[in-house]
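This follows on from our talk about sequence and fold. Go ahead and set the record down below:
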Amino acid sequence: MPKRSIYDLNVKDKRLFVRVDFNVPLNAGQISDDTRIRSALPTLKYALEQGASLVIASHLGRPQGERRREFSLRPIAIRLNELLGQPVTFATDCVGPDALQAIEHSGQNGVTLLENLRFHKEEEANDPVFSASLASLADCYVNDAFGSAHRAHASTTGIVPHVTDAATGLLLARELKYLGALLDNPTRPFTAILGGSKVSGKLEIIKNLLPRVDTLLVGGAMSYTFFKARGLSTGRSLVEPDLVNATRQIEKEAKTHRVNLVLPCDHLVTTALQADASHENLDVEATGIGDRLGVDIGPKTQQAYANIIKESATVVWNGPMGIFEISPFSSGTLAVAMAVAASNGTTVVGGGDSVSAVGQMGIAHQITHISTGGGASLEFLGGRTLPGVEALPNS
């Protein structure tokens, strides 16, 4: 069932508790990527335009229930102030007198950013008393933190029974719309591109997508467990021996569902994971890999994948095609990014390196939907119920 959204709430003169995902990378107290903050702006601006006051909450990092300066959200309050174009009051705690004082100081139609939720161990423990304390700060609850929706924490699930009304934010609603469409009613042909280092990290997604996709393109180090199962040379490439039989089963299931499961036909191999290490392209059928390891899909694979993507009406991509962070081994990932962006179909991209590739190429505006979810995206596409979504009322 679709969930209630902020559009369904009467927020005028109400104080909203908005759970966002401001878990952004910090370097010496400086934000190196504010994408997650920008992603929450449509919800925050809409609520303010409708006359609401905002109490914004997020976690940052893993402080393990301890107050640690390097995990403070204070730098984020400064950036949010700039992006919203109005004052943001920073509360030095997320509950108690400090939080209440900051909220009162922000005033009517004001904005308060609470300190890191995970400075309290009760957040991750989904403590009912802590949940009630969070709820007492506002009239209504809005969850716009898709990146945390797979966690049953106080601020994502525990708070909901303690508020008079609750709904999704615009970002969370958008995530559910596009990811849900992939599973429920995709326009065909439907192609999934999965990469990354391990089959184990994508096993649930593969099994859940096989009955739904027309084509599955595999890349990244996870390819080598499939190669091992086929008896191909893998050298020192990453292989998960305990999942060799699982990949054989996946290939059988793909045939059962008449899915075109495509593995790389050539790859880039190197002597070491260093930019200056010697490397060359080889056909995967070749035996010359020796003690080298595979680090990217080769040019023939890049072209073959691009051709399939071009003919697809729906494309979902999660995971890099190689060691994306090392420049000589990034061309496969960048080539897939360009092919997805050039597609005339509905395109959904998720996963850190996939999103980074799209950003690096300056083509994010050509993607239908870029998921901010990370682990939540994987669990959703893997068929799991997300507690943070399940807790919200249906529309």
Summary: The chain is about 35% helix and 15% strand. The mean pLDDT is 95. The radius of gyration is 23 Å.
